[in-house]
Specification:
The complex is a heterodimer of chains A (about 120) and B (about 350).
Chain A (H helix, E strand, L loop, with lengths): L7 H32 L6 H9 L13 H14 L1 H14 L3 H22 L1
Chain B lengths: L1 H11 L1 H20 L10 H25 L4 H11 L4 H25 L5 H29 L1 H25 L13 H5 L3 E6 L4 E6 L3 H18 L4 H11 L4 H17 L2 H6 L5 H21 L5 H28 L8
Antiparallel strand pairs in B: 1-2
Helix pairs in contact in B: 2-3, 2-13, 3-5, 3-13, 4-5, 4-14, 5-11, 5-13, 6-7, 6-9, 6-11, 7-14, 9-10, 10-11
Classes of the chains: A mainly alpha (about 120), B mainly alpha (about 350).
Chain lengths: ~120, ~350
C-alpha cells in the first residue's frame, strides 16, 4: 500500500499544508459565525441579511475587517490562499525528481491564483 | 459495519471529531450569547435553525460529493436555485465555496493513500483555473446586461445542463472502471504521466497511462468556464473527462476530481467576492459542513459502494433539473404551469 514513487512526497507536502490551513480557516469562520449570530457584531444586522437573502434581494454588504463578516472572510481567505504556499512547497521535490515540466505547470497555477487574489484585494 | 467504519474514523482523526463538536456547541451556544435586540421579521430560533440545518446538510452533501468525485456545488447550487428565491449570484458564489472546500480538505487523505497523483492535478488545474475565472466574469457581465431575466435564463440553462449531466452518469454506468492501459502519446508522453495506485478491492496496484492530454486540456477550459459561470464547480464533468477521455481509472478519477476542483475554483471565487455576491454569514455553515464532511468522505471512499451513490445522485439531478427548467420557463415567459415538486 505504500507509495514508492518519488513524487509522492510532493503530493503529501501539498495535501498536509492545505489540510491544516483549511482547518485553521474553518475555526476562524466558526468564530466569526458565533460572533455574528451571538453578539450581532456585523455592519448590516444579522436578521436583515438573512431576510433580504431569503427574499431574493441582492445584498451589497458593507464589508469591514473589524466585524464578524470580516472575520469569516479572513477564515475563507486563509484556506483559499493556502493553496499558493502548498503548491510552492511541493515543487522543489517535483523538480529534483525530473518532473520539471509538471513543476512549471504547478508554479503557473500558484502564480495565477496569487495574481487573481491580489487583484481582488487591490 | 458502516457504523464501525464511522466510529473508527472519529477515533483516528481527532481533529474531525473536535471540529464537529466545536461547530455544534458553537452554534448551540448562540441563543445564550445573544445581546442585540431581536427583529420580529426572523426569530432567533429560525436563524440558529437555518444555520445548523445548513451545516448538517452541507456535511451530508460533502460526503456524497467526495465519494462520487463530483464536488458539492453540483448538488448545492441546483437545489437552492430550484427550491428557494435566493439571488442567483449569491447562490452561485456559495456554490463555488461548497464545491471547493471538500476538495481542499480531502486532498491530504487521498494523496496519502495514493489515490490522487499530484502531477495529474497540477497539469489539469491550469486550464480549469483559466476557464473558471472567465466563467465567473461572464456571469457578472450577463447579470449586468440582462437584469432580472438573467436569473430565469440561468435557471433554465442550468436545468438543461443538469439533464445532460444525469445522462452522462446514466450512460457511463459501471463501465470504464479500469480502462485498458495504452502507451501515452504527445504531451502526456513528454510529461511522463505514467501512474498507479493501490486498489484494496483487487489487493494490488492498478497502473494507468494518461491519454489524449491535449483534448483534455481544451475540455478542462470548458468545464472550468461552466463551473465558474453556474457556481457548480465542475467536478461532475471532470470525472467523465478524466475517466473517458484520459483513461484514468474511475476511482482515481473521482478522487483526483475533488482535489483538482479545489485548485480550479480558487481563482473563480474571487470575482464573486469582489462584486459582493458572497454573503459570509450564509457561506459559513456551508463551508464548515464541507470541511467536516470532506474529511469523512475521503476516509469513507475506500468503503462505500459508489454504485449506490451514483443512483441517488442521478435521481436528485433529474428531479432538480425538472424544477429548474420549470422555474426558468415561468420566469422568461411569465406563464405559470403547475408542478408537484
Amino acid at each position: 500500500m505504500m507509495q514508492a514513487n518519488q513524487h509522492y512526497d510532493s503530493g503529501l507536502a501539498y495535501g498536509v499544508t492545505v489540510y491544516w490551513c483549511t482547518i485553521a480557516g474553518a475555526i476562524i469562520v466558526l468564530l466569526g459565525s458565533v460572533l455574528a449570530l451571538g453578539l450581532g457584531w456585523t455592519v448590516t444586522p444579522v436578521e436583515q441579511q438573512f431576510t433580504r437573502v431569503l427574499q431574493g434581494q441582492p445584498l451589497a454588504l458593507n464589508m469591514q475587517t473589524m466585524s464578524a463578516d470580516g472575520v469569516i472572510l479572513i477564515g475563507l481567505t486563509l484556506a483559499i490562499v493556502s493553496l499558493v504556499p502548498a503548491i510552492m512547497v511541493s515543487l522543489p521535490n517535483l523538480w529534483r525528481t525530473g518532473y520539471r515540466l509538471v513543476a512549471v505547470f504547478g508554479a503557473a497555477n500558484a502564480v495565477l491564483i496569487a495574481a487573481v487574489t491580489a487583484y481582488a484585494f487591490y | 459495519m458502516a457504523a464501525a467504519v464511522y466510529m473508527s474514523i472519529f477515533v483516528r482523526v481527532p481533529e474531525l471529531t473536535l471540529l464537529i463538536i466545536v461547530s455544534l456547541v458553537g452554534f448551540g451556544l448562540v441563543p445564550l450569547l445573544v445581546s442585540y435586540p431581536p427583529d420580529l421579521s426572523l426569530s432567533l430560533a429560525a436563524l440558529v435553525g437555518l444555520t445548523l440545518g445548513s451545516f448538517l446538510l452541507s456535511l451530508v452533501i460533502a460526503i456524497v460529493a467526495v465519494v462520487a468525485g463530483i464536488g458539492g456545488g453540483v448538488i448545492f447550487t441546483p437545489i437552492v436555485l430550484g427550491f428557494t428565491s435566493i439571488d442567483t449570484l449569491v447562490v452561485r458564489a456559495t456554490g463555488l465555496v461548497v464545491a471547493m472546500f471538500s476538495g481542499l480538505i480531502s486532498a491530504a487523505p487521498l494523496l496519502k493513500r495514493g489515490l490522487v497523483d499530484i502531477r495529474l492535478v497540477y497539469v489539469c488545474a491550469l486550464p480549469t483555473i483559466i476557464g473558471g475565472v472567465l466563467g465567473a466574469m461572464a456571469a457578472f457581465h450577463l447579470a449586468a446586461s440582462m437584469g432580472a431575466s438573467a436569473d430565469a435564463l440561468v435557471r433554465l440553462l442550468l436545468g438543461l445542463l443538469l439533464l445532460g449531466v444525469a445522462y452522462v452518469f446514466i450512460r457511463g454506468g459501471g463501465r470504464n472502471d479500469y480502462p485498458k492501459p495504452q502507451p501515452s502519446t504527445g504531451l502526456a508522453a513528454i510529461l511522463s504521466l505514467d501512474m498507479s495506485y493501490y486498489e484494496s478491492s483487487l489487493n494490488g496496484h492498478v497502473s494507468y497511462k494518461v491519454q489524449r492530454l491535449g483534448w483534455a486540456i481544451g475540455l478542462f477550459v470548458l468545464v472550468g468556464f461552466i463551473g465558474g459561470f453556474f457556481g457548480l464547480g465542475g467536478g461532475w464533468a471532470m470525472v467523465p473527462v478524466l475517466n473517458l477521455v484520459m483513461a484514468v481509472p474511475l476511482k482515481a478519477a473521482a478522487a483526483s476530481s475533488g482535489v483538482l476542483l479545489a485548485i480550479g475554483n480558487a481563482a473563480a471565487i474571487w470575482p464573486y467576492i469582489v462584486y459582493g455576491a458572497l454573503v459570509p454569514l450564509l457561506v459559513a455553515p456551508w463551508m464548515l459542513g464541507q470541511v467536516a464532511g470532506g474529511i469523512l468522505g475521503a476516509h469513507l471512499l475506500a468503503h462505500v459502494k459508489v454504485r449506490v451513490v451514483r443512483r441517488l445522485l442521478i435521481a436528485m439531478l433529474l428531479l432538480t433539473a425538472i424544477k429548474l427548467i420549470h422555474r426558468g420557463i415561468a420566469g422568461l415567459t411569465a406563464v405559470e404551469v403547475g408542478l408537484i415538486l
